[in-house]
Every structure is written in C-alpha cells, then in structure tokens.
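ok so heres the complex, four chains, lmk if somethin looks off
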Amino acid sequence: MATVRRERMTQRRIAELAGVSQATVSLVLNGKADTAASRIPEETRQRVLDVIRETTYVADPAARRLAGARNKIVGVFTYEPAFPSESADFYTPLLTGIEAAAEDLGCDLLVFTSAPVLGGRRRIFHETNRLGLADGCLLLGLEMDTDELERLVREGFPFVAVGRRDTEGVPYVGVDYVSASAALVRRAIDAGHERLFYLHLPSTGESVLDRQRGFRLALEDTAVDATLRASDGSDLVSDWTAIRESGATALFVESPAVAQSLLEIARAEGLSVPGDLSFVVLGEPSRPRDQATDFTRFSPPRTELGARAAQLLSRILEDGDQPSDEELRVLLDCDIVPGSTLGAPEGRN
Amino acid sequence: MATVRRERMTQRRIAELAGVSQATVSLVLNGKADTAASRIPEETRQRVLDVIRETTYVADPAARRLAGARNKIVGVFTYEPAFPSESADFYTPLLTGIEAAAEDLGCDLLVFTSAPVLGGRRRIFHETNRLGLADGCLLLGLEMDTDELERLVREGFPFVAVGRRDTEGVPYVGVDYVSASAALVRRAIDAGHERLFYLHLPSTGESVLDRQRGFRLALEDTAVDATLRASDGSDLVSDWTAIRESGATALFVESPAVAQSLLEIARAEGLSVPGDLSFVVLGEPSRPRDQATDFTRFSPPRTELGARAAQLLSRILEDGDQPSDEELRVLLDCDIVPGSTLGAPEGRN
DNA sequence: TACCGGCGCTAATACGGATTAGCAAGTCGC
DNA sequence: GCGACTTGCTAATCCGTATTAGCGCCGGTA
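and the predicted structre for the whole thing:
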C-alpha cells in the first residue's frame, strides 16, 4: 500500500516535517564545527536527522554542485573507448586501481563515454561536455592533446593525468620508462650485444619518447651500435628486412603484438631465439595472444598507477594541505621481467 | 600571454558579449522549434553562436540538471566491484556493451563505486547515494536486493536491470537460461544419459533459479533420474562423493571453476570424460583458467546484454513513445556451445 | 485612429542546497 | 535596569540554466 510519491524529497520538505527551516536542515547535514551549525542543539539536530532517516532523503548532487559543494565524483576521461577488447587490456588494470581507490575514498566515477571523436581522437571539450559535474578528473590515454591539457590547467580544473606529461602545470602519475628501458638495454649490452635495433611506435606520446630516451641513454659512452625505426606494425616484412640488414643481434620492440609476430617470422626463418636473435619488449603485455612468449620485458604497475592517480586527485580536491610540486608529478618504478628471450649473442656472423 | 580567467564562462557573460539577454542565449542553445526560440532571427542566433564558439563556452551540467533538463548520464550500479579480476570477466563484456551503447547515445556513465558494502552486499540506497545525478540507472549483479528494486519502482526512478528479475515492475534485459539449460539437458538425454546430477550454486538469484527450472523442465515426461545439490565449491570432496554415489553419468555444474576442478578430480581417478562421465557447464565461462577445457556449455551474449540494457533505458528516458510492457522485459537467446565434454555414456557400471 | 497580431526579445521565476548576516529571546554582569 | 553577550535559529541570497509570461514595437486592418 505504498503511497506513490512522485515528488522528490527536498530539504524544504524535511524542514516542514521537522518544524525547522531549510537552512537548518542544510546546517545539520553539512555544518562545519566553527559556524552557525555549532549552535544547533543536539535535540533539534536529532529531530532533523530522524526525519531524514524516515524519509530516506538524499541531497540532490546537482544542486549541491551548483551551490559550490563537492560531490565526491571523479571524472574519468579515456582517449579511446575503455572496454572494447582492443584496449581493454590497457585500461582494465588502470580502472581496477581507480575503482579500488575510488571505493576507498567514497567517490563515484563519471566515465565520459560521450566524448565525441574529432580528428581521430576523443575530445574533452565539446559542446555538451559534462566535466563540470565531477569534482575533478582523471585522464587516461597513450597520447593527450596538449591544447586541452593547457586549457584544463588554465581554467584551474582539478585533474591528474595517468602517464607522464611534458605540458607545464599538468599533475600526473606516470611510469619511469626511461630507467626501465635503459636497464633493459644495459642487460643486453652486458650480455655481449654490440648491435641493437629498436622498432618503436611512431607515436610522439611521452611514454613512447621516454622509452627512446632510455634506450639512447644506455648507449651513451658505449661503442654499441643501434638502429631505431618507427613502425606501426602494418608492414612487418619491410620491418623485418631492415632488422636483418642492420645486423643487430638484439631486437627491441615496443609493441608486444609486433614482437610476437616478428618472433614467429624469426623462427620460421630458422633463427633461434635468443641464440641468433634476442628479443626485448619495451611495451606492456596486453592481449593473451601476446603473452604466448615469455619475453624479456618490463612490467609497469598499472593497477597501482590508477590507484595512485585517483589518490593524488583526491588530495588535490581536499581542502587541506595541497601537494607540493614534486608530489604533483610522480613517477613509479617499473619492474623488469627477465623472461627468456634475451641471451648472449652467438656471434657467428 | 593567456589571461588567467578564474571565473567560469556563463550564459550571462555570453549574453553580455553578444548584446542579448541570458534567456536568449539559453533559447539559442536549447530552444525547441515550437516555442519562443523560433522567433529568434538567424542573425541574432549566429551572433550568439559566434561568441559561444570564441569563448568555447559549455553549459554547466549541474545547473542544467537542476533546471530540469536531462543530462544524458546513465548510472551504473554493480553489486560487486566491477573491475577487479575476480569479477572482471563477468562485468567486462557487459561494460563493453554498455559503453558502446552509451557512446552511441551520447551518454556518460556514472559508476557508483562509492556504494558501501552493508550486510555483505553493496547498497543502492545509502546516506550519500548520488543516484539522482543520473537520468536513469543500470543495475548489474548476480543477485539484487528485492527491497531496493521495489523502492526504485515505487519512486519511479528510471532503471533497467541486467538479468531477469522476478520483482514486479522491474524492467530488465536478461538471458533465457530456462531454454538454454533445458536444451543442454535434452542433449544429454538424447545422448543416452539416464541419470543426471546438477551441482548448482546455493544462490537464489533469478538466473540461478532459471537454470534449475530449465533443468527440471527438460526432465518432465521422461524417466530420467536426477539429483540436484547446492554447492559453493568450498567442499569439492564431499560434492564429488555425492556425485559418484548418485551413479550419474552426466554431471551438470553451474560454476565453470568448480567444473574445471571436478574434471581434474575425475581424470585423476582415472575416469574418462566424456566416456565415463559427461560434463556440462550451466554457467558462464569467465577466467582464462576455466577456459582450459572446451566444456559443453552455453554462452550468454553478454556484450549484447549490456548494449540492449543501455538502449532500453535510453528509450525509457526519451520523451517519445514509451516501451510497452513486453518491451520492458526482454530475454535474449543464449548460444549453445557443443564443446567436447558431453558424449554418450559408456554404461559399464 | 484604434485595434490586432506577430515579431524579437527580456524579466522573472523555478530548480535544491550552501552559506552568511542577523533577529529575537534569554543570560550575565554590574 | 541596561548593555553585552550567547543561543537558536531563519531570511535572504547565490549558484547557472531552462522556461514562461509578456512587453514594446511594427505593419496591417477596419
């Protein structure tokens, strides 16, 4: 026999029922200790709270937001759709961390799936963007639009990028790909390789550039020879030709999928791995198919990345102590996975 | 030399810049053809639009929402955390479909990660629930709280459950587990099995009960003997004992993980599958480990499930024609995967 | 000339909650 | 007995947008 109440509960109705004013209800709910709220006696407070409990009233978040209050809503913007299988393995661990942190912090996640694709990439700022509903925002993606980042900084909208960003004033939690890449290159050099080849992605995203930086860094002050080549994996045959012509004994590949394909080509040609050719993957294992081989590689702590980013954003949103400049730009260490595709060169050529 | 504008762009400022009133700006942006908006001449409209473009103004979603407009925000409530690996394989396909549909519909997703766990399960209604921010909500989970569903119905909050629900007035998109389960049982019977065993989950969730219903349905008017037993998989030894004592030649198991474990036990005891014992899984393949075996099973169209649910919700939210009662309660067909674990009984006992 | 209707717009208000200034009544001090 | 202070609350305002009633003006009509 439940009465159908079509009208929403509001503070005004709560106030009527409790015999107080709307302001009092609001004060009971949000009042800081040092304001008028402190002057509301326990008895009144309880009366209001009782009514709220009976009516199961909850404040309208839009109204709160409009009035300038925080809502504990964290925006999540992904530069590509997050769930489809192509990108799922990239985003899922991040989202796992973000979700866990959000749950911990009592935040909801607003996923901006509606962002339209313009110029081949999703845009944050578009005519119906709903960024403003969130208290702040997490940005995920291999590459991000510099203009948009700058605009966010300029407008003072609180956000944290997942992945290191060059853009000034952008808070981020990233992975130290420079060190991790350099460490892997040094392993190869230590194993005796003198001629390396790096097949990297054509992107100019920070993480891609960082890997190249690390790669070059490890070569400094050595006599080791290296060839770099950009490839999107669409013409593996010519990639493979270039690799063989370089005479490299150790092949670094950024894309795990490409690495797997090249490995299959190598084996098909009768090469032994790592005897004739060592493989090192400077990318993140993703789809199961690419995990068929236990590549020598690194393993970025993606779940932690997501969680740390969410926590950083939450700190930025807090009223209290603001993170220092260093705390706003965090790099996490990347584990090295020894794998089985890096060995000493057999040096028969 | 970007001037630091701390203040947000508003319609009022746009109005000043364009030399019109705030109302005009709003009308230009949202005006329906049959209202005052139709009387704004093209010239003025363009002047306003120009300013909007220059300033890259976007409306504050909170204010829009407060003023009664739709926000194109679809709430997503999961009864368990959605991303962690235990449940990822259940939720991910659903979310894939939901995300795709949401993108298509221009909606954002509000994931209620903050819902606190009370009494072993997440609660929709809690002191700080932000359901109201979304236009409507999708509910995901194996089991849902009937009281909460009833309350949603009573309050007239638009929502769609993923999975069939018994609760009256609940719109859902579910899977026809009854038919799919019955079909698998009939296959077993057709293969010559006369003694079946069904190890089902102890849950009383609709999908779990539907499988039992389908199981029993296929037995009607047959002489086939069947044993049902609830198990949460924590005591496989006694489960196994019960199975063997029943003399069943075909074993139906709801949990893929439990099925895999039992299969290993069976093989360890020297039983051949499906020769000595057929296995049929009445559950959804989830973790990779459980996909080690090509079980005879069904395969619910989970991605489609998510997409259809999102689309249904969107229709409910539309102003136009409301879905009929039948359209509010959709059951999708479930594919049967022949697999390799169901065969004719060798009947040597 | 007085009236009517359409045009182009604006003033005013509603939405629900946060916040501040301040009112009325009581208490205290002297 | 009067001011000062405290207590317990409320009125009023603001947030940014959507929407409706309606104003002033103009051309046309009777």
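quick notes: The first strand of chain B starts at residue 73 and ends at 78. thats all i got rn
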